[in-house]
C-alpha cells in the first residue's frame, strides 16, 4: 500500500518554479486566508480555553471568581485522591474491556462477513445501526433490558431460567461498571466491524488463493493473512481505543452518574462533578491536563512508532 | 464512547485506493470469497441477534402499556398502542427538541463543510507552508479531550453571550468536527488530478472562483459525506449540549429525552416511544445513505 497521497505534487509548485516571489507571496497569503476559519474557531474553542485550563490547573479557581496561584497543589491532590485513583483504575478496566471484547467481536464478525457474498450489506447495515443511535437512546434501550424489576431477568424467569432473577445490573457495585461497558459495547463494536471489514476488503485476494492452495483453513487464513493485512487499521484502532477509554463520559454520566458508591466513576465524570457541582474548576483543570497528557502522549507515541517502524499507515 | 469519528481521522493520512478512483466505489466484492460454513453463518446470526434484538425490544416496548412492560418485559405487545408516539411526542416536548436538533445539526454540517473545504483546499492546492505539520496539528486537535477546554470555554462563552445559545453550541461543534472533515476532504481533493483546474488557473480565474466553481462540484460526494458525519455527531452529542444549553425550549432532542427519562418513576413505554422518535431520523438517513456514511468513516485510511 503505497502512500500515493504524497506522490501527488502539491499545487503551487509550478508557481514556485518560476521563482516569481510576488505571486508566491500572494498565494501564500491566500492559503492562510483559506485556512483562517478553521484556525479561528479552533483557537477560540480549543486552543485558547485549553491554554487557560493549563493555567487554571495551578490555581484554586472556582469557575467564576478570581484565581489564586497554588503551585502544584492540585496535582498533588490529584495523585493522592482516592476518588481519582479509583476512577483511573476504572478507566484502566474500561480500556482492558474495550481492547478485548469489542475488538474480538468485530474481528470475528468482519472476517466472517468478508467471506459472505450475498447479504453482506444487510448485515453491515444492521451491525452499524446501533452506532448511529445517540448515547441517550441506547441507554434507554438497555436500562429497560437490564432492569431489575422488568427486564431480562424476569423474561428468563418466565421460561424457567432463574440466573438473573434478582440481578441489579446497574445498581450492584460489583456489576455496574461491567454493565455500563457492555451497553457501550453494543453501540460500539459494529463501528469497529465496519472499519475492519473495509480494511479486510483491501487485502490482496491472491494471498488467500495462495494460502488455499497450501491447504490453509479459515483460522490460518485469518491469522496469517487477514490479521497482518489489516495491521495498520488494527493498531490504529487499538491505540485510539486506549485514548477513548480514558475520555469516556456519556454512558457513565447517563446510566449511573458514577454510582453506585463511586463504583463506575471514571476521570471524565469525576472531573465534571468537581468542576460543576463542587465548583472546583482549578482542581478539575488538573484532571483535564491529565487526560490531555494521556491522549497527546498516545497520539504522538503512535506517530513516532509509525515513523520508526516505517508503517505505511 | 464519545467523539468517535473525529479521532478516527489519523487514518486519512494513509493511502488512497490504488486506482485513484474515489474510495468506496466499484469495489463491492470482497477479497476472500471462500464462502462461509454453517458455523460461520451461525455466529453471524448470533451477532445479528445481539445487534438487532435490543432494537426489536425497543420497538416493542414503545408500543406497550407500562403494565405490560412489567408483565412481559421483552415480549411482543398484545395490543399495539401507536398512540404512545403521540403522547410521548407531546409529553417529552420532542417536536421542539427535534426541530432544535435539526437546526443545530444542519448548521453544524454546513459550517463544517465550508470551514473544512477551505482548509483542505489550502492544504492541497495552495502554497501553505509546513504541510506535514498541519496534518499533525489536525490529528492532535481531533484527539484532545473535550474536558481539556470545557470549563474555561464555559466562562468565555458566558462573557461573549454565547452560553445557553444554539449558535454558541454550533460554533463549538464547528471547531471540534472541522479537523476530521478537513482530513476527509483533503483525501478527496488529493484523488483529483490538479490538471482540471490548471486550465482555468492559466486563464486567470481567482482561487476562490476556482474553488467554488471547479473544485467543489468535483468533490461534492466528499462534502456530502463530511456533512453526514458532522451532522450525525451534532445530532447525537451529549456532553457539550448538556453543559451549554439551559432553557427548555432550546434543548436539542437528546436533552429533551434525557430530562424526560430522568423522572423518578418514568413511564418506560413513553420514554421508549420518545427515544424512537429521536432515533428514527438518524436511522432512516443512515439506511438510505449508508454507503456515504461508511465511506466517511473508512475513507482513505482505515480501509487499507
Task: Characterise this structure.
The complex is a heterodimer of chains A (313) and B (304). By secondary structure, chain A is an all-alpha fold. Chain A has 2 domains: 1-56, no CATH class; 81-309, MetI-like (MetI-like fold). Chain A is built from 15 helices and no strands. Chain A is globular and about 70 Å long. Chain B is mainly α and 304 residues long. Chain B folds into 2 domains: 37-81, no CATH class; 93-267 and 274-298, MetI-like (MetI-like fold). The two termini of chain B are 24 Å apart. Classes of the chains: A mainly alpha (313), B mainly alpha (304). At the A-B interface, helix 3, helix 5, helix 6, helix 7 and helix 8 of A face helix 2, helix 5, helix 6, helix 7 and helix 8 of B.
Short description:
The complex is a heterodimer of chains A (313) and B (304). Chain A is mostly helical and 313 residues long.
Can you tag this structure with a few keywords?
heterodimer; A: 313 residues; mainly alpha; MetI-like fold; 2 domains; 15 helices; 72% helix; B: 304 residues; 0% strand; globular
What does the secondary structure layout of this molecule look like, with pairings?
The complex is a heterodimer of chains A (313) and B (304).
Chain A: H1 4-7, H2 13-18, H3 21-56, H4 73-80, H5 82-114, H6 120-132, H7 135-145, H8 152-158, H9 176-200, H10 205-213, H11 218-229, H12 231-247, H13 250-255, H14 267-276, H15 281-309
Helix pairs in contact in A: 3-15, 4-15, 5-9, 5-12, 6-9, 7-9, 12-15, 14-15
Chain B: H1 4-7, H2 38-62, H3 66-71, H4 83-91, H5 94-125, H6 131-143, H7 146-159, H8 166-190, H9 195-202, H10 207-218, H11 220-236, H12 239-244, H13 253-260, H14 268-288, H15 290-298
Helix pairs in contact in B: 2-14, 4-14, 5-8, 5-11, 5-13, 6-8, 8-11, 9-10, 11-15, 13-14
Amino acid at each position: 500500500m503505497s502512500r500515493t497521497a504524497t506522490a501527488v505534487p502539491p499545487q503551487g509548485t509550478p508557481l514556485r518554479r518560476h521563482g516569481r516571489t510576488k505571486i508566491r507571496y500572494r498565494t501564500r497569503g491566500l492559503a492562510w486566508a483559506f485556512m483562517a476559519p478553521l484556525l479561528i474557531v479552533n483557537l477560540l474553542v480549543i486552543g485558547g480555553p485549553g491554554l487557560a485550563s493549563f493555567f487554571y490547573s495551578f490555581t484554586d479557581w472556582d469557575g467564576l471568581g478570581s484565581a489564586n496561584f497554588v503551585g502544584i497543589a492540585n496535582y498533588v491532590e490529584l495523585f493522592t485522591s482516592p476518588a481519582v485513583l479509583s476512577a483511573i483504575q476504572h478507566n484502566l478496566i474500561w480500556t482492558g474491556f474495550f481492547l478485548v471484547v469489542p475488538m474480538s467481536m468485530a474481528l470475528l464478525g468482519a472476517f466472517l462477513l468478508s467471506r459472505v457474498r450475498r447479504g453482506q450489506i444487510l448485515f453491515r447495515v444492521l451491525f452499524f445501526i446501533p452506532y448511529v443511535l445517540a448515547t441517550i437512546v441506547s441507554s434507554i434501550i438497555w436500562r429497560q433490558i437490564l432492569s431489575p424489576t422488568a427486564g431480562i431477568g424476569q423474561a428468563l424467569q418466565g421460561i424457567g431460567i432463574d440466573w438473573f432473577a434478582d440481578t441489579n445490573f446497574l445498581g450492584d457495585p460489583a456489576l455496574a461498571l461491567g454493565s455500563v461497558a457492555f451497553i457501550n459495547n453494543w453501540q460500539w463494536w459494529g463501528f469497529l466491524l465496519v472499519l475492519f471489514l473495509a480494511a479486510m476488503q483491501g487485502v490482496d485476494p491472491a494471498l488467500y488463493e495462495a494460502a488455499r492452495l497450501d491447504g490453509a483453513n479459515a483460522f490460518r487464513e485469518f491469522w496469517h493473512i487477514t490479521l497482518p493485512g489489516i495491521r495498520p487499521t488494527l493498531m490504529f484502532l487499538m491505540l485510539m481505543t486506549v485514548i477513548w477509554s480514558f475520555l469516556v463520559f456519556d454512558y457513565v454520566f447517563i446510566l449511573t452518574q458514577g454510582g453506585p458508591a463511586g463504583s463506575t466513576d471514571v476521570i471524565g465524570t469525576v472531573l465534571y462533578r468537581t468542576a460543576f457541582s463542587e465548583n472546583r474548576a482549578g482542581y478539575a483543570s488538573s484532571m483535564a491536563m491529565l487526560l490531555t497528557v494521556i491522549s497527546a502522549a498516545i497520539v504522538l507515541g503512535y506517530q513516532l512508532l509509525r515513523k520508526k517502524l516505517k508503517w505505511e499507515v | 464512547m464519545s467523539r468517535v469519528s473525529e479521532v478516527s481521522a489519523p487514518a486519512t493520512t494513509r493511502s488512497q485506493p490504488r486506482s485513484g478512483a474515489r474510495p468506496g466505489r466499484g469495489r463491492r466484492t470482497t477479497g476472500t470469497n471462500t464462502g462461509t460454513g454453517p458455523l460461520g453463518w451461525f455466529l453471524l446470526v448470533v451477532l445479528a441477534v445481539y445487534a438487532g434484538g435490543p432494537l426489536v425490544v425497543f420497538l416493542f416496548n414503545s408500543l406497550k402499556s407500562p403494565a405490560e412492560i412489567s408483565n412481559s418485559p421483552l415480549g411482543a405487545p398484545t395490543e399495539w398502542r401507536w398512540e404512545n408516539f403521540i403522547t410521548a411526542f407531546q409529553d417529552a416536548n420532542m417536536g421542539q427538541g427535534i426541530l432544535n436538533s435539526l437546526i443545530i445539526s444542519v448548521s453544524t454540517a454546513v459550517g463544517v463543510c465550508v470551514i473544512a473545504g477551505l482548509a483542505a483546499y489550502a492544504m492541497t492546492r495552495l502554497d501553505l507552508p509546513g504541510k506535514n505539520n498541519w496534518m499533525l496539528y489536525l490529528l492532535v486537535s481531533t484527539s484532545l479531550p473535550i474536558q481539556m477546554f470545557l470549563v474555561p470555554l464555559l466562562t468565555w462563552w458566558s462573557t461573549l453571550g454565547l452560553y445557553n445559545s444554539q449558535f454558541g453550541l454550533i460554533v463549538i461543534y464547528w471547531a471540534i468536527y472541522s479537523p476530521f472533515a478537513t482530513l476527509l476532504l483533503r483525501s478527496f481533493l488529493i484523488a483529483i488530478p490538479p490538471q482540471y483546474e490548471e486550465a482555468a488557473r492559466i486563464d486567470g480565474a481567482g482561487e476562490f472562483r476556482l474553488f467554488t466553481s471547479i473544485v467543489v462540484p468535483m468533490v461534492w460526494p466528499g462534502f456530502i459525506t463530511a456533512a453526514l458525519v458532522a451532522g450525525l455527531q451534532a445530532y447525537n452529542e451529549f456532553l457539550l449540549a448538556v453543559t451549554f444549553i439551559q432553557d427548555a425550549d432550546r434543548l436539542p432532542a437528546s436533552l429533551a429525552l434525557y430530562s424526560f427519562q430522568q423522572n423518578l418513576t418514568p413511564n418506560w413505554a413513553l420514554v421508549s416511544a420518545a427515544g424512537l422518535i429521536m432515533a428514527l431520523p438518524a436511522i432512516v438517513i443512515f439506511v438510505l445513505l449508508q454507503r456515504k456514511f461508511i465511506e466517511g468513516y473508512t475513507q482513505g485510511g482505515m480501509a487499507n
